[in-house]
Structure formats: C-alpha cells, structure tokens
C-alpha cells in the first residue's frame, strides 16, 4: 500500500462512484445537518466568531512575529490533477519585448521602450494550494449543509448557497498539533491513520488546551516534500481518523480545522460507501469548514502551539473552495472564558 500513489488510491476509491453529492450510494443513517443558527445559515460553525473574542485575542498577542501559513503557487505544484481537475497554470499576457514589437499600448515605440510592461494570468482548480473548503463542497443524498437541495440551488454558474463568497474573514484562537513531531518523524509514514487514542495521548502529554470555538491545525510533515519532491508528496496521504474528527467536533466543540496534507483525513478511508467520510461528516453533517495544504513547518519549528489565526478567503461566488493567505501570530497562554 505504501508504494501506491495517492493518484492510484483516489482512482480506486472513485471507481464506479460519482461525486458524493449525487452518488446512488446512500450512507446508512447519514443525512445532512440542519443549522442551529437557523434556516438561512450558510457558514456553519464560523458563526462562533465574535467581536468580543477578537478583542481579547488581539490583546493577548505575545510578539509581533507573523508566521505565513500559505504555500506558493507554481507550475508543477502538487494537486488534484489525478481526478481530472486542471493543474495550476501561469502564463504571460504582456511582456516588455512584446509591447515594443506589437505596440499594444499604442503609445509609440519611444514610450514602449522606456516603460517595461508585464502582465500575466493564471488558471487553476479552486482546491489548489492553501485553500478552504466551502460548505457546498460535499453533501449527502442530493443535499448540502442545512438541507439545501442541488436541484433548487445549483446552476451552471455554481451554487447560490454556501459558496466561498459567503465565508467571512476568519479569526480565532489557533492550536497547532504536531502529529509527526509527536511520533518522532519528519513526516508521518505512508497513509498513516492518526487515531483518537493517539490524539488524546498527544494532547495530554503536551498539555495542550482545546476550547470550544478554537481553530485546530495538524502537521503531518508532508510539506517537507511539497516544493521539492512532488512524487513523494503525492504518494503519501496520512491524516486523522474519522473518529478523531468526531471527537474534536462533538466533545471539544472546535470551530475550524486544517492540516498540511491534501485532505485532512487519511486516505484511503476503508469505507466502500463513502470515499471521504471525514469530508461529508464535517461539511455536510456538521457545517464545519476546513483548510488544506497549510504550511506549518515554521510554526512547528518555533514550537508555537497557541496563536491568533487570521485567514482571508477569496470571495469567489458560488465556488466550492477559495484560495487564502492565512497567518498566525503567537499568543500568550489564553483560556477562553
């Protein structure tokens, strides 16, 4: 199994299965969740943010150090091309030489030789690089979070409910859990499933505090390969067990989750009726968004386990995900009161 790439694993998982939302397979006993914040809710657990909490968090900043948690975008970067999604592409639309030869600005050769004009464009799948999954990304039995039906709210121009444009600027108390560091590994081994038992032991041994409304990130160590070895990055898919995700949500009351891997949960799931059960559980049943492909190496190296998180997703109307540039600022020891 360790020798198989994530491309092979995912292809095996999706063979004969269409996108989970429209699949003929019905997960036993699973239906989309109804929001405790009312029938108009489109952001789920992000409703837990508050102005008063922001004031307390900002007043507890321990230093001016800012950690950048986003990855760079570059041609050839790891991504979901194995599912047929477009790879990240970058190209120039204007170059200084082209401007001079083509005189595209119609200002004359003298001006065009003096002023160097460069312009460029990109094309990519919205789930590329550091991004947040919107609540319309996964559903169950033809519906997404809060009972929203695809037949009524999904058009050729995307969803008119729970798209990434609805995700507000995100702030909160962040907690870093270094799974790889706890296991004494640079990178968790191939497709390692981090269990609930291990997670509880890690939290207890490192005296970490997870409060209701917190933002919790997990480091698998995979970013070691992201820039330099795409094959190794794509051949390894460790992550959390679904049981661990359920405990974080139902017992600890977390607001947002994230990790440095492709899917937060481990792949393959081992569930023949649902190839990404963690996704459907979090997004469709519990209304909890999460961030993938976070860069957590510097934060972990500095042993920063508690921080103010700020994340600003792009407002792409109707989209199932949005690229974002998240940052972390160390906090003094803080307990939500």
Automatic annotation (TrEMBL):
Please provide the Gene Ontology terms (biological process) for this protein.
L-tryptophan catabolic process to kynurenine
The superkingdom of the source organism is: Bacteria
Q: Name one GO molecular function term.
A: arylformamidase activity
Q: Which residues form the signal peptide?
A: none
Q: What is this protein called?
A: Cyclase
Q: Which organism is it from?
A: Chitinophaga flava
Query: What lineage is this protein's organism placed in?
Result: Bacteria, Pseudomonadati, Bacteroidota, Chitinophagia, Chitinophagales
């Amino acid at each position: 199994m360790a020798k198989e790439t994530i491309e092979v694993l995912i292809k095996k998982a999706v063979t004969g299965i269409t996108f989970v939302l429209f699949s003929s397979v019905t997960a036993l006993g699973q239906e989309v969740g109804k929001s405790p914040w009312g029938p108009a809710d489109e952001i789920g657990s992000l409703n837990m943010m508050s102005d008063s909490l922001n004031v307390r968090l900002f007043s507890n900043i321990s230093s001016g150090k800012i950690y950048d948690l986003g990855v760079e975008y570059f041609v050839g970067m790891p991504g979901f091309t194995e599912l047929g999604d477009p790879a990240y592409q970058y190209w120039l639309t204007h170059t200084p030489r082209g401007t001079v030869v083509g005189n595209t600005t119609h200002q004359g050769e003298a001006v065009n030789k003096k002023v160097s004009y460069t312009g460029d464009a990109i094309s990519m799948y919205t789930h590329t690089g550091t991004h947040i999954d919107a609540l319309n990304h996964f559903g169950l039995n033809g519906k997404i979070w809060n009972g929203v039906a695809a037949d009524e709210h999904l058009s050729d121009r995307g969803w008119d409910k729970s798209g990434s444009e609805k995700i507000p600027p995100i702030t909160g108390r962040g907690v870093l859990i270094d799974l790889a560091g706890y296991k004494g590994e640079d990178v968790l081994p191939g497709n390692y499933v981090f269990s609930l038992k291990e997670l509880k032991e890690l939290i207890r041994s490192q005296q970490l505090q997870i409060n209701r409304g917190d933002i919790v990130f997990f480091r698998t160590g995979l970013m070691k390969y992201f820039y330099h070895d795409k094959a190794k990055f794509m051949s390894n898919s460790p992550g959390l067990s679904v049981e661990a995700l359920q405990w974080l949500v139902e017992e600890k009351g977390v607001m947002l989750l994230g990790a440095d891997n492709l899917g937060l949960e481990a792949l393959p799931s081992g569930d023949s009726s649902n190839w990404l059960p963690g996704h459907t559980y979090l997004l469709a049943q519990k209304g909890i968004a999460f961030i993938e492909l976070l860069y957590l190496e510097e934060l972990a190296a500095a042993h920063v386990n508690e921080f103010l998180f700020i994340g600003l997703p792009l407002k792409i109307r109707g989209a199932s995900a949005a690229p974002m540039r998240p940052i972390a600022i160390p906090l003094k020891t803080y307990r939500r009161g």
